[in-house]
Amino acid sequence: MAQPTTVVIGFIGTQLDSGQGAGRWEKWRPTISMAQHPDLEVARFELFYTPRFEGLAQQVRKDLAAASPQSDVNLIALDINDPWDFGEVYAALYDWVRTYPFDTERERYWAHITTGTHVAQICTFLLVESRLLPGLLLQTAPPKKQRLGEPGSYELIDLDLQRYSVIAQRFEQEQVDAVAFLKSGIATRNARFNALIAEIERVAVRSRAPILLAGPTGAGKSFLARRMYELKKTRHQMSGPFVEVNCATLRGDSAASTLFGHKKGSFTGAAADRAGLLRSADQGVLFLDEIGELGADEQAMLLKAIEEKRFFPMGADREVESDFQLIAGTNRDLRREVAQGRFRDDLFARINLWTYDLPSLAQRPEDIEPNVEHLLARSVAETGRAVRFSAEARAQYLKFAQSSEALWSANFRDLGASVTRLATLAEGGRISTELVAAEIKRLCWMWQRDTSPDASPADIDLAALLGDEASEALDLFDRLQLEAVLRVCRESKTLSEAGRKLFHATRTQRSVVNDADRLRKYLARFGLSWVSLQTH
Hints:
Elements (H helix, E strand, L loop, with lengths): L4 E7 L18 H4 L8 E8 L4 H14 L4 E6 L8 H14 L7 E6 L5 H12 L6 E6 L11 E5 L7 H18 L8 H16 L4 E4 L6 H14 L7 E5 L5 H9 L16 H4 L4 E5 L6 H13 L1 E2 L8 E2 L3 E6 L3 H6 L5 H7 L2 E4 L10 H16 L4 E2 L1 H11 L10 H14 L4 E2 L1 H15 L14 H5 L1 H5 L3 H16 L3 H8 L12 H10 L5 H5 L2
Parallel strand pairs: 1-2, 1-4, 2-3, 4-5, 7-12, 7-13, 8-9, 9-12, 14-15
Antiparallel strand pairs: 5-6, 10-11
């Protein structure tokens, strides 16, 4: 197959390429120099110029024909009034590029950036970087000593950064550092969580679209949202503040007022104008925790604010603007909330572009150890008092913390409080086995449910769940077993929590522990699902 021919694309330099008399051949002219290299054959020149430099363009064409008779020269007149106007120059080049018949199999394209205004050079760079112009950048330079007919030198720049190993390594290290930042430097080991954080890092630095963080209370939604903001701030992608509000605390007129602001006198008690949190978050991040708690009116107003970046404060007849990025948190299944009419489907569709379900602490037992170390180190830094586990106490605590007995129902809030108690009560800076044993008892007491004989378990209506025919077809054995399983499900906050209780003995005998999947499959035998149980 024949080697591709070379096509040079660039602007005619109104100063550097100029010259009328014979003396013009004694100076270095960038465009002409490309036809003077004995080892370089240019098949075609595509040269831009503005109409008022028509004479210069024709002269450059003649000189190229003299220097390289085999090269074709196409002159392209661009109707640009101000060559220093970025929008005008880029639009003109973009329109040309979009209609040009590039043939990358037969031709290679070099975009000359030595000539033209700095704006033209920047626009050319952007078109090559985006691959709209599929080629390399071409930079030419005059000879060190000016001699008649000396072409100088040229360099090619490939903007494919993957070809530069040192740069690629720096980008990879930057991503590794960003992921570690999101995790506060904690060497987490859970594969699912690590993959989730790695994707969140990419989204955080590349997108300003809404992000939804789902997961149980205490799973770290608020913490992660703030770290994402701080990461964007270090990349100079945010200039505004991080504004956080728990929507569960908003009720009545105060909800709309807190979020969207109000005008003086718009309701009883509105003694002065109020900007509202959405305006406060302009050019920053607005974190709405427990977004599922918002009322219907606030949901509608929020949708408009997200889509149009403007909204009406309460009592105002003029809209205000705020360009913020929304990060939302929820411990509810918003899909079910939509199905039951409690959450707007159009708002859910708008915030559901990037949804991440943060696993609970109990679902990440392998991450408990590094988090304990992190919390202990933070306690030491805050108090200035060195504290550490004895080897036996450490093993004792981790064995319990990673077992099915440890519910961690408040997730990292429970773990943080537990480590704080241990560090505070440690005598001589040493956490003993006796202290760990007392802490384990305290945690078990906190998580204990009422299982006394006087506590009457709620009746399970199998007929309502399965239908009369299917219910009557059950053997007594299956009926009693299913009712017991359903009671555990009803007492549990999540499918995973119920699974850990039901399979706490046999789960340790499996190479892959997935209590939730085992329970899900059991329920499916009777046509049931976790979601269906929550609606009865």
